[in-house]
Specification:
- The chain is built from ten helices and 20 strands.
- The strands form five sheets. Strands 3, 7, 8, 11, 12, 19 and 20 form a seven-stranded mixed β-sheet that branches.
- Helix 10 links the parallel strand 19 and strand 20.
- The longest helix is centred in the middle third of the chain and has 13 residues.
């Protein structure tokens, strides 16, 4: 079978990989679609994500859907042939964070396609992949595999919105109209936000923000854009740049909430800390997700508008061109790899 293996900065290879066999408690999944995530792009372009650096070749990918092939001894779940999505996280289940119900910040988690630990956790951009059977989710009725590939990034967005607290009837700002930012817009609208403003540097990205449900779309580099709100109740920083966080801190009301979702560059990032003090702004982090994965699948099943955020489906054999397309936000939002002929 073919898989996408990153060897270092700029060194992405489509390689022949052995077909895995499921062990005890595991499921073998035939992958159909895999979404190219911002973290995949960082491994490709920079050799790492934030403080997580590549130290060995690694199969990329954690946003995958497909069908069940078989189970290993003791494995159980949806019947073979069932269309499923894969939850990419394997928390340890015993650390203080897991015990407190915050498994998304487990201190010893394993996450598909992540260099956060060594040896790295190999990812799921391959024709077939083995995962713990408890991480396999049957798709709800009416949800096709193509749209279901958005479940993982939508779960990230849902978690970020929940970290903000109550957003129903509130004014929300989202900085960054990449795939995650657009899904934050959709998640905020689904949670009942009264109005969502999205900002970005690119007009093409802002158009995807409108598709996701933003009531206003503004240029991040134009503070005089009439679409900017005077102030918002909640701001979610989804661009991963210090300027986005600065905009959130300056636009949120006194006593408001700012959620930092975008992964900032490694090292120190300057921010307007005095505003956090003088306005009593609550600055909260949001990292991955847990139970929101199931909520994402349910939301996707009931809303076809999400299809508009999938800008391209590319055969796995053309993975490097797919990554280049995904990295060019003037031409794409979410790009999927198609593994239909990879095994």
């Amino acid at each position: 079978m073919r898989g996408c293996v990153i060897h270092g900065q700029g060194d992405l290879r489509v390689a022949e990989l052995p077909v895995p066999e499921p062990g005890p408690g595991q499921a073998l999944i035939a992958v159909r679609y895999g979404g190219v995530c911002g973290s995949d792009l960082h491994y490709w372009r920079h050799g790492g994500v934030g403080d997580f650096r590549l130290r060995e070749p690694m199969v990329l990918g954690h946003e995958v859907v497909g069908t069940v092939v078989e189970y290993g001894p003791g494995g159980a779940g949806p019947a073979p042939g069932t269309a499923v999505a894969v939850h990419p996280a394997t928390p340890c289940g015993v650390c203080p964070e897991c015990a407190a119900g915050r498994r998304n910040v487990c201190r010893d988690t394993r996450y598909l396609g992540s260099a956060a630990r060594f040896p790295h956790v190999q990812g799921a951009f391959a024709g077939q992949v083995v995962v713990p059977s408890g991480q396999v989710r049957a798709l709800p009725d009416g949800l096709e595999l193509r749209r279901a590939a958005l479940a993982e990034p939508l779960a990230v967005a849902l978690h970020a919105v929940r970290r903000a607290g109550e957003v129903a009837g509130r004014r929300v700002l989202v900085t960054g109209a990449g795939p995650i930012g657009c899904l934050v817009v959709a998640a905020a609208k689904a949670a009942g936000a009264a109005h969502v403003t999205v900002s970005d540097l690119l007009p093409e990205a802002l158009e995807y923000g409108r598709i996701a449900g933003a009531g206003s779309a503004v240029r991040a580099d134009d503070p005089d854009d009439r679409g900017w709100p005077d102030e918002v109740d909640v701001a979610v920083e989804a661009s991963g740049v210090a300027a986005g966080l600065d905009a959130c801190l300056r636009r949120v009301r006194r006593g408001g909430v700012v959620v930092q979702l975008g992964m900032l560059p490694a090292g120190h990032s300057p921010f307007a800390g005095n505003l956090v003090v003088s306005r009593e702004i609550e600055l909260r982090g949001a990292f991955r997700f847990d139970g929101e994965f199931d909520d994402a699948l349910a939301l996707l099943a009931g809303e076809r508008a999400f299809d508009g955020l999938i800008s391209a489906v590319v055969p796995v054999g053309e993975a490097e061109s797919a990554f280049a397309l995904a990295a060019d936000r003037s031409r794409s939002c979410k790009v999927l790899l198609d593994f239909a002929a990879s095994s």
